[in-house]
């Protein structure tokens, strides 16, 4: 009933967005972005301070934190509960695509070690690849690196080149990508820079991977029907033997014990051979504890926004405009179509609205495509999309106002005065999203159910509305018969190759670094993120250590190193038997002594506290390796996150390093009482020598499944 009550409130403070191009000149003669807010008369039972309410609406719709002095006038309007916000002139679009957003600028502005980059091989385990894509052209590439031992066995009519140096197929379909997913992920990790690309004009610009000079080897393990576990394990073992430097794998499922998950096993094998596996967190958010990537020898990646966002508007026939999230490339030329409720399969030549309720109660309108070609459809809710159905083009009404807008749409459709509601859909446009990065609601959240004291995901990277190469054989979205070379997709499948590209970029400067050193460098230099709202959905369980920062990760100062023996000790601490340990490591192992899983030398610290404990004390033991300057003194600093009442002590609190690769150990003691059962408590440990800030999240929680 609480939800219903909230809905009623929202119904009476509906927000309608209408962007127009009214010009405004400020006192100093300069053009300035100003806004006009039209406000309907508000229900008297609600308490409002209209001006501040307008301000907050503006903040929501513009994504700007400071809009002081920008609101020129608020009008009262007759219409009940309708607000229109008009930016004063056409929005300036300052967005940059994902690599620019992360600081890896195009061309000469990014430091690159091209000779090593060209010898770096990225293995992509996915749905295959489209070898003819310009993203994989070998123009300017020399022969494969000498270490390459792989093959090109992609089946009939499949040719490799000096960029796409290898392909293997485990599906008997051939390694050609008929789905689009594998082409998209491979080009995001290591595709060439291709200028002037877009999805029917949407997102136009240069598409490129993180390490465009690197080579790609494609391992096809998935078809439309899914990916088999034996194919995944074979692909890992072949990729390792072929000589790849890094593995990117954007597939997965629900959390499984390590010995039952061939992806965890394959990644363990890779780790022992010095190869880092970068893996997507999964698309089962925002509910807690759904994360399917749970092993400490894997870099697990959540998906977040960049400062370029796509929006799509529905203009109702009566003039009201709703803004939503979608990718609509069709120009309906302003023609109105009936708006109907219903099921996709039955409807034609109509804009279809389906509404669903998830735990977060967000309504989604999906728009069907007229058989002659208009908007496309994906009638499933975003969070329920499986890895293999990421070509989504539903219209979800914008995050900040989605409840209002969706409910408005429902109200519109239910309006007794309108027997035949109509509307039209505009083509998607790009806007500047100042709030970025924020984690997508679909991105799978912790806590980790397999190892409760290991924080997952590790980091977040761009994974929302990513333009990258696509398979011309695949439908851009369901029942869309057009063929495209580049398409826009969202998912942790898209963030994973971004992080893989970053890991490869680091490896080109530090070829001798082990997987754990790269993982640590990425995690401890990540941009700090903040809970954007309350609830598990927006904490470290969504973004781990924060957002990847490729440039900072080149020079982390200190790293938390792990070797195979540490991972074995961790598994022993989880009470794995010799039998299951053998399944994972492929060799006979006996556990010696007892190691608490939370003492694994991981770059983040997490502990689950029994809910029955009113007070608690936990210790984390860690050892850092000096990679900064030989002679350096690191001082520890604890930053408590908002609302956290933890007591955190670091012993010793100062580390004096005398040489490179020197290791020093310390203990972090965290105590507190009366933990919130709904929310984790967190802090950050930062080791700083004045130049490097080595940050680790500390998270304690009591969540019970
Ligand atoms: C980038 O570097 C190349 C080679 O050093 C040089 O020829 C080119 O002029 C540079 N471009 C810019 C924009 O600086
Ligand atoms: C090989 O595949 C490409 C892409 O699908 C196609 O255009 C071409 O006709 C095929 N060639 C043969 C000989 O089948
Ligand atoms: C991009 O495409 C447009 C139109 O096709 C063309 O005029 C322009 O030269 C292209 N730009 C580049 C950098 O290739
Ligand atoms: C994208 O297309 C628009 C409209 O055609 C054009 O003004 C803009 O310069 C293009 N941007 C890029 C990066 O090519
Ligand atoms: C459009 O119709 C809806 C539903 O009847 C109504 O709430 C809204 O105020 C109307 N908008 C305009 C601009 O008339
Ligand atoms: C995090 O959010 C809190 C309020 O939710 C705010 O007080 C704090 O300044 C934010 N911190 C950062 C780094 O944005
Ligand atoms: C492992 O077994 C010990 C002894 O039975 C127990 O105390 C501990 O809680 C177990 N650990 C896990 C992670 O299950
Ligand atoms: C929980 O309480 C028990 C009993 O007081 C205590 O032995 C245990 O150490 C506490 N656990 C933690 C994590 O503090
Ligand atoms: C290291 O730093 C200490 C204190 O700043 C200084 O006394 C010492 O000479 C330095 N050693 C080297 C090898 O630079």
From TrEMBL:
The keyword Signal applies. Residues 599-700 form the Subtilisin-like protease fibronectin type-III domain. Residues 34-91 form the Inhibitor I9 domain. Residues 1-24 form the signal peptide. GO terms for biological process: proteolysis. InterPro entries: Peptidase_S8/S53_dom (IPR000209), Peptidase_S8/S53_dom_sf (IPR036852), Peptidase_S8_Ser-AS (IPR023828), Peptidase_S8_subtilisin-rel (IPR015500), Peptidases_S8_3 (IPR034197), S8pro/Inhibitor_I9 (IPR010259), S8pro/Inhibitor_I9_sf (IPR037045), SBT (IPR045051). SUPFAM superfamilies: Subtilisin-like. One of its GO terms (molecular function) is serine-type endopeptidase activity. The active site is at residues 126, 181, 493. Gene3D superfamilies: 2.60.40.2310, 3.50.30.30, Peptidase S8 propeptide/proteinase inhibitor I9, Peptidase S8/S53 domain. Residues 118-546 form the Peptidase S8/S53 domain. Keywords: Hydrolase, Protease, Serine protease, Signal. Belongs to the peptidase S8 family. This is Uncharacterized protein. It comes from Thlaspi arvense (Field penny-cress).
């Amino acid at each position: 009933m609480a939800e219903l009550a909230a809905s009623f409130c929202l119904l009476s403070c509906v927000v309608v967005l209408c962007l127009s191009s009214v010009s405004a000149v400020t006192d100093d003669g300069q053009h300035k972005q100003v806004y006009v807010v039209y406000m309907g008369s508000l229900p008297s039972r609600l308490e409002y301070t209209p001006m501040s309410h307008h301000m907050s609406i503006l903040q929501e719709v513009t994504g700007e934190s400071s809009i002081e002095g920008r609101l020129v006038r608020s009008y009262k309007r007759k219409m009940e509960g309708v607000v229109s916000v008009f930016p004063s002139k056409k929005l300036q679009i300052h967005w940059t695509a994902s690599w620019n957003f992360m600081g890896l600028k195009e061309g000469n502005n990014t430091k690159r070690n091209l000779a090593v980059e060209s010898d770096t091989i990225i293995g992509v385990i996915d749905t295959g690849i489209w070898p003819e894509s310009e993203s994989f052209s070998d123009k300017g590439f020399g022969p494969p690196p000498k270490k390459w031992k792989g093959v090109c066995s992609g089946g009939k009519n499949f040719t490799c080149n000096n960029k796409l140096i290898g392909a293997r197929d485990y599906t008997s379909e051939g390694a050609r990508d008929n789905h689009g997913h594998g082409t998209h992920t491979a080009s995001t990790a290591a595709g060439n820079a291709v200028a002037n690309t877009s999805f029917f004009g949407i997102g136009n610009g240069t598409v490129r991977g993180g390490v465009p000079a690197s080579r790609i080897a494609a391992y096809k393990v998935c078809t439309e029907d899914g990916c088999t576990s034996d194919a995944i394990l074979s692909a890992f073992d072949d990729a390792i033997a072929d000589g790849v430097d890094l593995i990117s794998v954007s597939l997965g499922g629900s959390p499984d014990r390590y010995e039952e998950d061939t992806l965890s096993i394959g990644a363990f094998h890779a780790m022992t051979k010095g190869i880092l596996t970068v893996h997507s967190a999964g698309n089962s958010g925002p509910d807690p504890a759904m994360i399917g990537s749970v092993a400490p020898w894997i870099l697990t990646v959540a998906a977040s926004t960049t400062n370029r966002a796509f929006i799509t508007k529905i203009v109702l026939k009566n003039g009201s405009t709703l803004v939503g999230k979608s990718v609509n490339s069709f120009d309906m030329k302003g023609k109105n179509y009936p708006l109907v409720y219903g099921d996709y399969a039955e409807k034609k030549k109509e804009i279809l609205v389906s509404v669903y309720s998830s735990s977060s109660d967000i309504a989604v309108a999906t728009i069907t495509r007229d058989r002659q070609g208009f908007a496309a459809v994906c009638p499933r809710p975003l969070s329920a999309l499986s890895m293999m159905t990421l070509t989504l083009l539903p219209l979800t009404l914008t995050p900040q106002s989605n409840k209002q807008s969706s409910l408005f749409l429902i109200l519109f459709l239910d309006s007794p005065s309108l027997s035949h509601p109509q509307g039209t859909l505009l083509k998607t446009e790009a806007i500047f999203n100042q709030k970025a990065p924020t984690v997508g609601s679909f991105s799978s959240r912790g806590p980790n159910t397999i190892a409760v004291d290991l924080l997952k995901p590790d980091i977040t990277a761009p994974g929302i509305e990513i333009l990258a190469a696509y398979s011309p054989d695949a439908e851009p979205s369901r029942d869309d018969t057009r063929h495209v070379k580049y398409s826009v997709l969202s998912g942790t499948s898209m963030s994973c190759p971004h992080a893989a590209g970053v890991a490869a970029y680091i490896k080109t400067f530090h070829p001798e670094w082990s997987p754990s050193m790269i993982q640590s460098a990425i995690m401890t230099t990540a941009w700090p993120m903040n809970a954007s709202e309350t609830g598990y959905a927006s904490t470290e369980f969504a973004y781990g250590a924060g957002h990847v920062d490729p440039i900072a990760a080149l020079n982390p100062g200190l790293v938390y190193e792990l070797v195979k023996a540490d991972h074995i000790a961790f598994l022993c601490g989880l009470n794995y038997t010799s039998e299951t340990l053998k399944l994972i490591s492929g060799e006979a192992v006996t556990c010696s002594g007892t190691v608490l899983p939370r003492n694994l030398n991981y770059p983040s610290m997490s502990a689950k506290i029994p809910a029955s404990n009113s007070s608690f004390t936990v210790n984390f033991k860690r050892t850092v390796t000096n990679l900064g300057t030989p002679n350096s003194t690191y001082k520890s600093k604890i930053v408590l996150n908002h609302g956290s009442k933890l007591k955190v002590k670091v012993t010793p609190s100062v580390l004096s390093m005398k040489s490179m690769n020197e290791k020093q150990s310390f203990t972090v003691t965290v105590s507190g009482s009366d933990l919130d059962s709904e929310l984790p408590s967190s802090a950050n440990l930062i080791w700083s020598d004045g130049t490097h800030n080595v940050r680790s999240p500390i998270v304690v929680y009591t969540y019970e499944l």
